Structures are given as C-alpha cells and as structure tokens.
C-alpha cells in the first residue's frame, strides 16, 4: 500500500523542523513513495516479474544565499538526522549565490485541483498475464513475426512537497503501461518495432489485441529496407515521433539554458522561430493527463502557457532561480514542461503526403545528434519514401517506377508523361516501369511476343465495365501478339455486387451477363475473371496467363483484401523492359 | 565493509534461512544488498551551482526458474520486508521445480582499493579546484562565454547472499571530473567537452597539472568546432582516432554480443558464432580486470569474478558476454558479465571495458591512403538497434581528408553503420591502442552502468556520413 499523506507530511515536518533547529534560514523538502509492479512476457510465456517499493526524500537547506542539498532512500528518523546535519554543514561552506531563494510566496499554488490522476484500481499479476497473453497472440498472427516481447507495469505514487514558507501539498498518481516489441524476419533481414499505451486510469489503456496488431504491422512494414542515395528532400515526421522535437524544444527554452547562454534560442523571445502555422501549448491541467501537475517542483502554481503562437516564441520555461537571472517571474515550470503539444494544423494527412512529389516519411530516429547550443540536428532515420502521395514505391537503379492516381476510371496514359490521372499505363521505353496498386481489384500486365511494349492495368468492376482494357490495348501499336497476365484479385465466390452493377455491365456489353450468377437475396456474384476473359477474347487476345490461387479474399496470409479487412495496404504489380 | 543488517531486526541466520527457503526449488537466485553514497558538485555560470549528497540503501531479491526471473526490491531492510519479498517471489514461481546451482567461482583479485573517495578529500578542496578551473579558462581566451565543471564521486558496497549461505562482497569507488566550455565568436557558438574518471581517489585530478590538461582539451575541441564547416554526406572512407571513438565497437557489436539478445535470437549475431564477422587482424575483447578503470569490476553483480573475455579473434566470433542465467540456457559458462545499475534492477549481461587490440599500422599511413574521406577524433554518444544491426554515433571533433592530407574541421555529423558488416570494412588497424578517459555510461533496458572502451586508430573503407554537404 502506498504511504498516505499523513506519513509523508510527518516526515516532511520532521525534516523542516530539524533544518530550522540547526540554523537553516530556509528549507524545502520532498518526500515520496512509489510502488511498481511489472510483468514481462516473451514469446507468449512469462519472462520476468518485478515488484518495487521505494521511498525517497530530498532536502535543500539555505543559510541566507548559500544552498546545498541531500537525498536519500533511508527515511528512518535516525538516518535523516545524520544526513540533514551533514547537509547543513555543507551549506555553511558552500559559497553564496545571489539568485538562490525559495519561490515568491504569492506564486505558490493555493487551490489544488483534483485532476483525477489517481486510479485506485489494482490489476493482479494474473490479470496482467491475461492481458499480455492476448496481446502477444494478436502480435504473432503473421508468420513473419518471429519474436514478441511485452510488458505491463502498474505504478502508484504519492508525494509531499513542503517548504519553510508554509507550503505543504502533494497528491497521489497512478499509471498503467503496456507495451509490445515485435521482431519480424524475411530472408536475412530482421527488424523490430513496437507499440505502447500508457494512461493514468486502467480502463483507458488500449485493448491488448489492438496493441499487438499494431506492433506487428509496424514491424512488418519495416522489412527489407533499402538505402537511398544522399539527397535533399522534404521530410514528414510521423506523429509518433514528431513529439521528440518538443522534448528538444523544451530543453532549448528552459530558463536555465537561456540564462547560461547555451541555447540556440537565446535572444529569440517574441521572434519568429517556426513557420506561422505552428502553435505549441503546455497545458498542466488536463484531466487524467500523463504530464499533468498542480504545481511545479518548487510549489509554484502552473497555468497553461502558449509557448509558441503562429510561429513566434512567446515564453520560456521559467523557474525561480533562473528567472531571477533573466528578470522574469517563475511561470511554474521548475522541473520542465507538463503536457506539451503541437496544436493541430490545417492540412489533412493525405494532402500532406501529396505536398511534394518526393518526401521522406520518417517513422523512427536513432542517435543523440541534437545540439541545443548550435541548433544542429543529425540523426539516423528509418522510414518510407513517398512518391506522389503513395508509400513504398520502388526505386530501381536506373529505372523509375511510376505509380498512377488511380480512381477506377477507364483512362490509360502513355509514359513517360507528367500526367498521373489514369488507371492504366503503357510504354515503349525501357527505362520506365509501369506500376499499379490493388487489393481485390484485378491487376493486368500486358506485353507482346516480341516485347515491344509493356502495359499495366488496374481493373476494378467499374474499370472492366467502362472499358479500361480496350482503352489501353487499342492505343498500343503492338509488334507481336498480345500476352496478358492476370494477377490476384477477388474471386467470384466472394465478390457480391448489387443489380445496378450488373446493369452497368450489360449496358456497355450485353455479353458480360455470363460473368454474373444470381444469388437468393437479389444480389449477384461477379466473376471479374470471366468478364476480363470475355473482353480480351473479343479483342483477339489468346495468350492469357492466370495466377494460381488468385483469390485475394480467401488467401489471408498472402494477399491484402479491401473487402475482407478494409486495409489501406496495397499490392503493387510492375512490368518493365530490360535493356 | 558494511554490515547490512546490524541496525535491523534481522540476524545473519534469519537472512540465510529466508534466502535458502525462498530459492529451494529454483535454478538460481540471490539476495543482493547495496549501500551507496554519492556526491556531485557542479560549478556553472561563474559559481558553485550545486553540491548534492545522496545515500541509498536497499536490497533486491531474485529468484530464477528456467527462463523466468522473479524480482522484488525494497528500501526497507527488516524481517517483515524480506518476508514480503519472499512471498512475492514464491507466488510468481509457484510451480517451479528447479535445482539450485550452488557453484560459483571465487577470486582473490582486487582491481581497485577499498576507499571512499567522498570522505577522502574535503569538500573545500574540491570547490577550490572547480573555482580554479573557472578562472583559468575564462582568463585563457576571451571567446570563453560559459564554463561548467563538475566532480562526481561514489562508493558502493555490495553483499550477495546465495542459497546455502555463501556470501560475496565488494566495495567499489568511482569518480569523474568533467569540464565543458562554450565559446562564442562572431555570433557563432560551439562547445567542447572533456572528462576523466576511474575507480580511484580524487588525488589524480586535484594535483596541479592534471586538471589543467582536462581544461586545455575541452578548450581545444571547442576552438576546433568554431572553425568547422558543413560535413560531407554519403558513403566514404573514415579514419577513426584511438581511444573514445571505440564507442563504434560498443554500439556496432558490443550490445549485439550480449548473451541475452543471442539466447533470445533477437540479435543480428545470434547465428554467427564461429564465423568471420570482422577483417583478419581485428581482435576485440571485453575485459573487467584492468586496474582502476571505470568499466572494471572485481566481481560482477551476481558474484562471479570478472575476466578478460575474447569476443572476436582475428575476425572470428568466439564468445558472447554471459551472465549466469543466459550461460545456463546456452549451455556455457558465465563470463562475469552480469551487471545491474543498483538493487532496484535485475541482472543483465553488460559490457565492461570493450577493447580492440593494436595491430601493426600507423595513423599516418591510414590518412595518407585516403583520397576523400573524414578523420574522426572525438564523439558524443551512440545508439544501436540490435535486431536490424544498424547503429549510429555522433562526431564532436572531425576533419575532412583530401588527397591523403587532413583538411578543415567539419561539423558534428552522425556516422551510420551496420554491426555485422562494419568490422569487415576495417582495412587497417593501428599500433596505437588507447583507452577512453573514463567517462562512459552504457544504457540498456532502463539501466545505466559505467563502462570503458578502447581501440587503436582504424581505417574503415566504407561508412555512411550524415553530413549536409552533398
């Protein structure tokens, strides 16, 4: 059980009284207790369990402008007496510092709001284990995942901050954290990634299978990375890590760094330091906020601060000591920021991805290359290359894969071209790779017996009905007989459509009735394969190759299927001519 | 030596009984007592900014059954507290059916003295040196705008009690002295940082000339950085200087060769034992037995005496670093590499002093052989992803090499490499092996432990440099 306020207050009083008796003119003390229970899993079995119960105290004693401090985990009155005496003796010989002082009395927090930071729920280790079992089951579904490690920690703590000016306050807080790291392997490449959830209240944490699923997906996405050449590029930082900038930013605007002159943002107050679409807020009173505080580490009250407004630096993070050096009042940020965030901007995610034709999308950084003195930034990065708003386009050496802005149209374009609005492309150039994306729709790759051209067609039902295939083949000057490969798509068995779809097909091509079978409920099952074959035969194409086991819906482990999973992932089909 | 329970309601007999009873069906485990005292004194912005003393006392009780580790720790040393921990461990491992391994090697070696560096020298003498440092640097150069200097000292006493009553003890001193200087010239600011340390008394650094050397070095690095130009970007040859640049080894292969990652098969090295992982001529050891070094230990934190472990010999992977748990599961022996930050943490295989041994060539030869590349002398920190094998580290002092000659200094850039392949790119190994000055801390799983690194100058044929000059 966590020590209660009474116990902590009595220890605090003991320390302050002792310091005063010895002759300290001021003193400030923090007493805390925290209890933590962790269970770790690995490959779906228990790996480690850990329980900790720790007490801590820290006291600063002042003799006028002289100050020193001690801390300890041994809270027996006998030990406290020895340490505080030692602290006092040290203070006597520590030189004066004109800026040493307790905070201004008027700035001390008076009304302590209840921010609901403490959840008294206790989750037994057995239940933690159940959570982790479910989490790792979900994370291990895909066979590419070869290792999973997960952890569940329940933390409870209580503290008191008291000083010789009469401030004496503290409160309980709790946190429940679950995390999963997965390792995926493909051929000789192994990669790892993670997902986690951390909340003040047990009921707010993520559902374990959701957590496991995301950890696995993030990991698999990283497999078989490629190096890109040195380049100057626009960069998007994924929101999972973009908050890393806030940590560095908070360090650069701490009154300590500013006062010492060791921050690249020194002298930048009220100046434009970000673009004017950026607003950064530090909000201490979020209910159940993981960074919420009722007062800072000196007891000063905390109010919401707009650190950056329209790109302009409005505030530093100020404590008493460094504030005095800068002629600024403390704004309740001794100990750092609270809940620090970028406000939402105006651009939606998809538009952001399309904002430049080539963007480096960073999902992880590694290394400690942030220099707050110079503002230089150099880190290792992992991520994806986005081209024309699409992730993961291949970048072959000497060849350029060109993806299209697919919209289920019946438009085909000849490459190379700046135009991208089409659902099929064709080319006679051997440095161009025709590429299309599908996840149930039918991909067709086309060439001829002498390899005089290549074409790629994205055919959903709409494309098939409105003639994407003939609109492509009729524009091509093939030198030999056509050869067509039909790739994985949703099969007749699982592709239910309404009567209006059948009507559209029949309007454009009565013969396509063959591709539909009735169902009892008035709907139809459409065989896109049949529809495509009929169309190809009518165009004189005889050489048609079809992938075995082509159904994307049925083959859960091999193919993405929009109808099955509503997934945003796609498969790419590419065709190009070698030299 | 501390007696951890003379002020409590516990007798040694009580303790031995509780330990043996708790661990009777386990494969391993121990009760770890720790009493540590530490001080830190900081001079900054022209004054003594802080002087802090702290003392921490507690125990960590560990029970291991097969692969599962149960752990309970507390500050409170009493019969009730110990019994609560025991109950907690027993309930976690309730179906355990192991056989405790009582064997543990012993040693008479000692790599440092039984001293308390904090009490040995008065606070006054330390304050005096810090003030001298401040005056010296600010008078030396008008571009000096900020000086920070600090002393940190610690004495840690441990006692490990195993089932059956076997007790192993150690008393460990540790000190550090750091100086950081910030210069400002023509609106441009740059820093230089240097520090020294080891398991010895402060005497080394309180003697007149020694602290001046540290100041000069910090100033020199900052001055070089004031002239630095944007670093080149891309793959190129890199010459690394001796000493601290060995964090390359620490990040590239050190973590990847820790026993737990290999037992769990998450390290990129797990299936490479016996294979060529480095150029011939590259030999790397992890040594805990060097006198007075920061990364040395007489016994590790589960009682095993440390040793000089050969990790890679002439390019061939020979050994992983093992603690007792991973050694047992991998059917090999502990290399005395089981460490923990303090009583609040479990033991994990960790590095000690990780060192590449000298070869035959000279730094001069290496520089002359490079047409276009960089020469990196000093580093900040690094980081590694042991699964993918990718690692990074940041230069804090580096130069261009053009046509075999050292050119202008370049801004700190991140160097990126791949662990299992980087050492195969080492084409020259120098004859000038140097240890780092004694300030390294390695982080893993939330635990920081003091470590050392060492290497001679080396030439790497291909490394990616994260500069800004394309």
Account of the 3D structure:
- The complex is a heterodimer of chains A (579) and B (470).
- With 579 residues, chain A is of the alpha+beta class.
- In chain A, the strands form six sheets. In chain A, strands 1, 2, 3, 4, 5, 6 and 7 form a seven-stranded antiparallel β-sheet that branches.
- Chain A is elongated, with a radius of gyration of 32 Å.
- Chain A starts with a helix and ends with a strand.
- The relative contact order of chain A is 0.08.
- Chain B is of the alpha+beta class.
- Chain B is 21% helix and 39% strand.
- Chain B contains eleven helices and 22 strands.
- Chain B has helices spanning 12-22, 79-92, 117-120, 123-140, 203-206, 208-226, 247-254, 259-263, 324-329, 363-368, 419-422, and strands at residues 28-44, 47-65, 68-74, 144-161, 167-185, 188-198, 234-240, 284-287, 308-313, 316-317, 338-339, 348-349, 353-356, 372-384, 390-402, 405-410, 414-418, 426-429, 434-435, 440-444, 447-455, 458-466.
- In chain B, helix 1 (12-22) packs parallel to helix 2 (79-92) and helix 4 (123-140) runs parallel beside helix 6 (208-226).
- The longest helix of chain B is centred in the middle third of the chain and has 19 residues, at 208-226.
- The radius of gyration of chain B is 24 Å and the shape is globular.
- Chain B starts with 11 loop residues before the first helix and ends with a strand.
- Chains A and B meet through strand 2, strand 3, helix 2, strand 4 and strand 7 of A and strand 2, strand 3, helix 2, helix 4 and strand 6 of B.
- Strand 2 of chain A pairs parallel with strand 3 of chain B.
Key terms:
heterodimer; A: 579 residues; alpha+beta; seven-stranded antiparallel β-sheet; six-stranded mixed β-sheet; 14 helices; B: 470 residues; 21% helix
Brief summary of the model shown:
The complex is a heterodimer of chains A (579) and B (470). Chain A is α+β, with helices and mostly antiparallel strands.
Unreliable stretches of chain B, pLDDT < 50, 5 or more residues? none
* Number of helices in the DSSP assignment of chain B: 11
Beta content of chain A comes to 25-35%
Assembly state: heterodimer
Tally of helical runs of chain A: 14
What is the tally of beta strands of chain A? 27
The fraction of residues in strands of chain B falls at 35-45%
Measured between the Cα atoms of the first and last residue of chain B, the distance is 60 Å
């Amino acid at each position: 059980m966590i020590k209660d306020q009474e116990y902590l207050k009595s220890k605090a009083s003991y320390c302050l009284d002792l310091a005063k008796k010895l002759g300290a003119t001021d003193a400030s003390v923090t007493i805390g207790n925290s209890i933590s229970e962790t269970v770790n899993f690995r490959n779906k079995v228990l790996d480690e369990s850990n329980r900790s119960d720790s007490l801590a105290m820290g006291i600063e004693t002042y003799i006028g402008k002289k100050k020193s401090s001690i801390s300890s985990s041994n809270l027996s009155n006998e030990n406290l007496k020895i340490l505080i005496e030692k602290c006092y003796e040290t203070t006597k010989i520590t030189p004066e510092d004109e800026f040493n002082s307790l905070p201004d009395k008027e700035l001390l927090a008076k009304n302590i709001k209840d921010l609901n930071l403490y959840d008294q729920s206790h989750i037994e280790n057995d239940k933690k284990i159940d959570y982790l079992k479910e989490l790792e089951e979900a994370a291990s579904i895909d066979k590419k995942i070869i290792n999973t490690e997960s952890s569940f920690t329940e933390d409870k703590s209580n503290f008191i901050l008291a000083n010789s000016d009469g401030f004496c306050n503290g409160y309980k807080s709790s946190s429940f954290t679950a995390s999963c790291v997965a390792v995926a392997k493909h051929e000789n490449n192994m990669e790892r990634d993670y997902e986690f959830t951390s909340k003040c209240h047990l009921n707010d944490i993520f559902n374990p299978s959701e957590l496991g699923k995301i950890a696995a997906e993030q990991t698999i996405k990283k497999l078989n990375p490629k190096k890109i050449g040195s380049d100057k590029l626009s960069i998007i930082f994924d929101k999972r890590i973009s908050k890393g900038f806030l940590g560095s930013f908070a360090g650069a605007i701490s009154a300590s760094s500013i006062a010492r002159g060791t921050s690249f943002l020194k002298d930048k107050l009220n100046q434009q330091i970000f673009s004017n679409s950026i607003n950064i807020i530090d909000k201490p009173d979020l209910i159940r906020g993981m960074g919420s505080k009722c007062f800072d580490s000196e007891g000063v009250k905390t109010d919401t601060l707009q650190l950056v407004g329209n790109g302009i630096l409005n505030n530093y993070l100020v404590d008493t000591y460094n504030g005095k050096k800068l002629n600024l009042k403390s704004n309740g940020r001794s100990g750092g920021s609270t809940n620090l965030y970028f406000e939402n901007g105006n651009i939606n995610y998809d538009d952001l991805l399309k904002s430049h034709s080539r963007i480096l999308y960073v999902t992880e950084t590694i290394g400690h290359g942030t220099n707050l003195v110079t503002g230089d930034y150099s880190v290792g990065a992992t991520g994806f290359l986005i081209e024309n708003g699409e992730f993961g386009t291949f970048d072959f050496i000497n060849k350029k894969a060109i993806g299209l802005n697919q919209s289920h149209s019946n438009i085909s374009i000849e490459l190379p071209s700046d135009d991208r609005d089409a659902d099929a492309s064709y080319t006679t150039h051997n440095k161009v790779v025709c590429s299309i994306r599908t996840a149930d729709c039918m991909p067709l790759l086309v060439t001829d017996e002498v390899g005089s051209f290549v074409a790629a067609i994205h055919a959903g039902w709409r494309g098939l009905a409105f003639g994407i295939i003939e609109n492509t083949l009729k524009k091509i000057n093939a030198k030999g007989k056509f050869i067509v490969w039909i790739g994985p798509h949703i099969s007749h068995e699982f592709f239910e459509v309404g009567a209006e779809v059948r009507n559209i097909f029949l309007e454009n091509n009565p013969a396509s009735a063959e591709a539909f079978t009735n169902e009892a409920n008035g709907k139809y099952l459409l065989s896109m394969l049949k529809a495509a074959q009929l169309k190809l035969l009518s165009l004189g194409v005889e050489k048609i190759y079809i992938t075995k086991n082509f159904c994307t819906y049925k083959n859960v482990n091999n193919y993405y299927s929009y109808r099955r999973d509503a997934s945003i992932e796609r498969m790419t089909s590419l065709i190009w001519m070698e030299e | 030596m501390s007696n951890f329970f003379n002020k409590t309601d516990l007798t040694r007999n009580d303790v031995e009984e509780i330990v043996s009873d708790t661990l009777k069906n386990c494969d391993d485990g121990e009760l770890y007592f720790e009493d540590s005292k530490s001080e830190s004194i900081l001079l900054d912005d022209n004054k003594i900014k802080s002087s802090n003393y702290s003392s921490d006392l507690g125990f960590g009780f560990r029970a291991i059954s097969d692969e599962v580790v149960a752990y309970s720790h507390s500050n409170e040393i009493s019969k009730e507290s110990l019994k609560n921990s025991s109950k907690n461990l027993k309930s976690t491992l309730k179906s355990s059916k192991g056989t405790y391994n009582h064997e543990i090697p012993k040693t008479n070696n000692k790599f440092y003295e039984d001293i308390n560096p904090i009490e040995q020298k008065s606070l006054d003498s330390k304050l005096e040196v810090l003030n001298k440092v401040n005056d010296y640097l600010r008078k030396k150069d008008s571009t000096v705008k900020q000086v920070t200097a600090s002393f940190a000292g610690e004495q840690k006493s441990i006692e490990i009690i195993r089932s059956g009553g076997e007790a192993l003890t150690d008393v460990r001193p540790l000190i550090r002295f750091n100086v950081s200087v910030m210069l400002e010239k023509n609106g441009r600011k740059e820093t230089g940082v240097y520090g020294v340390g080891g398991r010895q008394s402060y005497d080394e650094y309180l003697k007149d000339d020694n602290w001046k050397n540290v100041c000069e070095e910090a100033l020199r690095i900052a001055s070089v950085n004031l002239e630095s130009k944007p670093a080149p970007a891309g793959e190129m040859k890199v010459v690394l200087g001796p000493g601290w640049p060995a964090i390359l080894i620490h990040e590239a292969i050190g973590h990847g060769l820790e026993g737990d990652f290999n037992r769990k098969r998450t390290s990129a090295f797990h299936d490479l034992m016996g294979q060529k992982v480095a150029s011939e001529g590259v030999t790397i050891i992890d040594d805990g037995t060097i006198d007075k070094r920061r990364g040395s230990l007489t016994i590790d934190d589960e009682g095993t005496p440390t040793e000089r472990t050969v990790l890679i010999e002439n390019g061939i992977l020979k050994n992983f670093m093992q603690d007792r748990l991973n050694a047992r599961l991998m059917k090999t022996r502990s290399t005395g590499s089981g460490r923990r930050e303090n009583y609040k943490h479990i033991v994990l295989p960790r590095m000690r002093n990780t060192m590449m041994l000298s070869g035959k060539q000279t730094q001069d030869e290496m520089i002359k052989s490079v047409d276009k590349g960089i020469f990196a002398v000093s580093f900040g920190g690094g980081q590694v992803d042991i699964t993918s094998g990718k690692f990074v580290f940041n230069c804090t002092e580096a130069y261009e090499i053009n046509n075999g000659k050292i050119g202008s200094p370049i801004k700190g850039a991140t160097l990126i490499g791949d662990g299992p392949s980087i050492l195969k790119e080492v084409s020259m190994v120098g004859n000038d092996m140097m240890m780092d000055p004694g300030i390294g801390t390695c982080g893993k799983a939330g635990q920081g432990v003091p470590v050392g690194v060492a290497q001679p100058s080396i030439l790497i044929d291909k490394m990616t440099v994260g500069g800004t000059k394309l």
